[in-house]
Specification:
Elements lengths: L4 H35 L4 H7 L2 H33 L4 H8 L3 H10 L4
Helix pairs in contact: 1-3, 3-5, 4-5
């Protein structure tokens, strides 16, 4: 299982999760700086000029999107494994996962493959 696509998708999730944690920590530092600047009487214009806040916010959103993409690719790969490797039908995968058949079908047909 050296080239296991599902294991690769799990690694992608972990990478994206760690990136999100990093960006959230950076955002926390920006929030702290903004609070300190405001407590010292800085205007919003001064805060925007001195703080990494807007860039930190954008970085969090980008990292969040990457995590969602990694999660989607994992779900699609898991469905592919259930159908192709384990021989389950789309309906059976839907029943076992608690999803609509249409959702499972979309994941199977187009999701996550490079």
């Amino acid at each position: 299982m050296r080239h296991d696509p599902l294991a690769r998708r799990l690694a992608d999730i972990e990478d994206a999760r760690l990136a999100l944690v990093h960006e959230l920590e950076a955002l926390g530092k920006a929030v702290t700086l903004n609070r300190e600047l405001r407590q010292r009487g800085a205007t919003v214009t001064e805060i925007f000029r001195e703080s990494p806040g807007p860039a930190a916010r954008r970085s969090v959103r980008q990292a969040w999107n990457q995590l969602n993409e990694a999660l989607h690719a994992y779900r699609a790969e898991a469905v592919r494994c259930l159908v192709e490797e384990e021989g389950l039908s789309i309906a059976e995968v839907a029943r076992r996962t608690g999803n609509a058949r249409q959702v499972i079908s979309r994941l199977y047909q187009g999701g996550g493959r490079d």
